[in-house]
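Suppose a colleague, Dr. K., hands you the sequence of a protein chain of 491 amino acids and asks what its three-dimensional shape might be. Before reaching for any lab equipment, you can write down a predicted structure in token form. Begin with the sequence itself:
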Amino acid sequence: MKKLVEIPRKMRSVRLPLGRGAILVGNVSEAALPLARNIVLAHILSPDQFGLAFSLAIVVALAELLAEFGIYEFTITKTLDSLVKNPVYTLQSLALARAILIGAGLVLIGPFVATLLHAESHAGVYQMLSLIVLVRGLENLSVKQAIARFEYVREATVVIASQCVAAAVTITVAIATGSFQCMFWGLLASAATVAILSNLLAPRPLRWRWDKPVVQSAMAFGRPLVLNGVALSASSADRLAIGSLMSPAQLAHYNVVLGTALVPRWIIVRFMNLMFMPLLAASASRPQSERNLQAVWFLCLTLTAFFYALFLASFGDVLLGFAFGSQYMPSRYLMSLVALNVFVKLCMALPGPAAYVSGRTGLIALGSLLSATALLPAIIGLYLMRSTEVFILLLTVFEFASLVAYLIISTRNMAVAGTFVCAALSGPVILLLSLAVCSAAFPDINLATWCICCVLAGVVFVVWSAISMINFGFIWRILKSDMLEAATHRT
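The predicted structure, expressed as tokens, is then:
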């Protein structure tokens, strides 16, 4: 019986990823262009319409998460040297079936969602979101498969073009109509661009097939991720809670603050996953190299998460007020809480690449389930207090507890020592928490003094990191040599 090879035993010699710059630009565009679009919409649409526009994108994202089974990750990590000829064709069939399932679900729940968000008269718009998912189901997955060969340019081209089209169409329709429905047209144009360009640039034509071994392997890989998708959808329902318990205008303010801060989070995680998953797959047969690469991954993500969170705490309130207008400017305390929350959310991705490459996707589902549990007490606090600050505070506290439990469990199944993880996380959390306490105790502190406090926090973090890296000095010895070997190794 034919079956997929889980970890390729015989890989081609591959070049270093010359397209890394292209995929970096592509991932940056996924953050920069939606941000630019939202800034323009904030000055065109009323707060209520702005909040409803956000809700359309949120509903599509939540619906896709509910039927998520890791088809992109499976395509990248498990199909390159399959014994089944052209397994991507079968994955295309699975992707289309998934799109049809999601589309039907959106048609059914559209009226309920519209009522929940105080937009009963626009139920049809929420039902029409099914078109976006159906068009996305026509994306050619062989573009994703090329990433496993370190070919990033096709994927980057598709991503950049789709984001440009989405921003241009959304803004144009918003200017013409002043309606939240501009988001629907922008998302639909983006999905069409992805479908068209991926097929034009794909190394293989779009075809549908049904090979039972591929389906079985994909389902075995993705079964835990279905639960992960449900949990992610639940943990991402915070915006629906804000919109239903407060108002579309409050949803707009919340999404400007936390939603804007989280946009780079997905880009950071996705870009770093794309860089590390092929390297970890190539080093899977060499335990010491795999261990070293996982340590580098932990260090890179932790450093990136802290400095991004520190930037948010330092200038986030000022920049949001300048970009979106004074009505959307958050308090410094709220922004400090958001910075800490973003750091915790980024760190929830720490076990990701190793879990995907090794096929232990149950770890991914576990992390999402633990994150989802943090939302319930936060929603209860929101219901009782009707305060965004209380909501984010409770959300952050319980998400941090989930992070600690998640890392305790996941490091037992990974090649990274728990002491290293503790050293990598304890310093940043203490520093960001100190900034939040300071902003609450001294709400009227001027910007210059606040920036000095943030700079001092950054200096302390650098010293803490240096001490940690001395204790784990092997990281610098393998940063170049082992990553280069993993990218060029022939097993």
